[in-house]
Amino acid sequence: RPIYATQFHPELTATDLHDRLRQYPEYRQSRTGRTFESFTRQTRESRESNRLLRRFLELLSDRQLVQSRTV
Q1: Cα(38)–Cα(21) distance, rounded to whole angstroms?
Q2: pLDDT, tens digit, 9 for 90 and up, residues 11-45
Q3: If you compute the radius of gyration of the chain from its CA atoms, what whole number of angstroms results?
Q4: DSSP characters for 22-70?
Q5: Residues 6+ apart with CB under 8 A from 17
Q6: Is pTM beyond 0.85 here?
Q7: More confident residue, 70 or 6
Q8: Where is pLDDT greater, at 67 or 71?
Q9: Of 61, 58, 62, 16, residue with least CA distance to 40
Q10: Which one, 7, 19, 52, 60, has least CB within 10 Å?
């Protein structure tokens, strides 16, 4: 049986991300190569992220339904 997983944090807002990046400047610099100001200017909220997990579950539900019909 397949196992599905995600590594995703839809609860993480742009403000929360900025707060985390302030705490770990070396990490941000090593991963992005950009200053904090440059990075945060291009960071925005994503309404799509709020729907991503719901859509993932819908896809899995559809797949499980199809698999159960073929067994």
Answers
A1: 12
A2: 888 899 899 989 999 998 898 899 999 999 988 88
A3: 18
A4: HH-HHHHHHHH-S-HHHHHHT----HHHHHHHHHHHHHHHHHHHHHHHH
A5: 43
A6: no
A7: 6
A8: 67
A9: 16
A10: 7
Tell me the pLDDT of the chain averaged across its residues.
82
Contact 8, 55 (CB under 8 A): no
Cα–chain-centroid distance for residue 21? 16
Question: Cα dist. 63→1, 5, 48, 58 in Å?
Answer: 12, 14, 22, 9
Amino acid found at 66: V
Which residue type does 67 have?
A: Q
CB-based contact 43:18 (threshold 8 Å): yes
